[in-house]
Amino acid sequence: MKVIFLPQAQADLDEIKEPLLSEIRKRLAALGSYPSLGAPLFSPLAGYRATIVGYFRVVYKQTPRAVEVCYIRDCRRS
């Protein structure tokens, strides 16, 4: 299955530095083969899934033809 990046997800990915960038890319590639890898989310994000890589949360949804990555957020607390 193809992995598609929505504009926000691509912008988020462009801001991430190594070594986590490589780990995130590996996980994104895995989503193409295993779209149910992440945990399902609930209201208001019902229908979406999330997977955690380091301190980043990758939110995506599966469509009939692809996995759409919606955004990638740094979840560290300040």
Q: Which secondary structure elements does this structure contain, and how are they paired or packed?
A:
Blueprint: E1 2-5, H1 7-15, H2 20-33, E2 39-40, E3 49-53, E4 56-62, E5 66-74
Characterise this structure.
By secondary structure, the chain is α+β, with helices and mostly antiparallel strands. The chain has a single domain, classed as 2-Layer Sandwich (YaeB-like fold), CATH 3.30.2310. The chain contains two helices and five strands, in the order βααββββ. It has a five-stranded mixed β-sheet. 17% of the residues are buried. The model has no long low-confidence stretch (mean pLDDT 94).
CATH-derived architecture: 2-Layer Sandwich
Largest sheet: 5 strands, mixed
Unreliable residue runs: none
Helices, by number, come to 2
CATH topology-level fold name? YaeB-like fold
Proportion of residues in β-strands: 25-35%
Task: Work out the helicity level.
Answer: 25-40%
Average residue pLDDT: 94
Whole-number total of structural domains: 1
Order of strands, widest sheet: 1-5-4-3-2
How would you sum up this structure in a few lines?
The chain is of the alpha+beta class and 78 residues long.
Q: Which structural traits does this protein have?
A:
single chain, 78 residues, 5-stranded mixed β-sheet, 2 helices
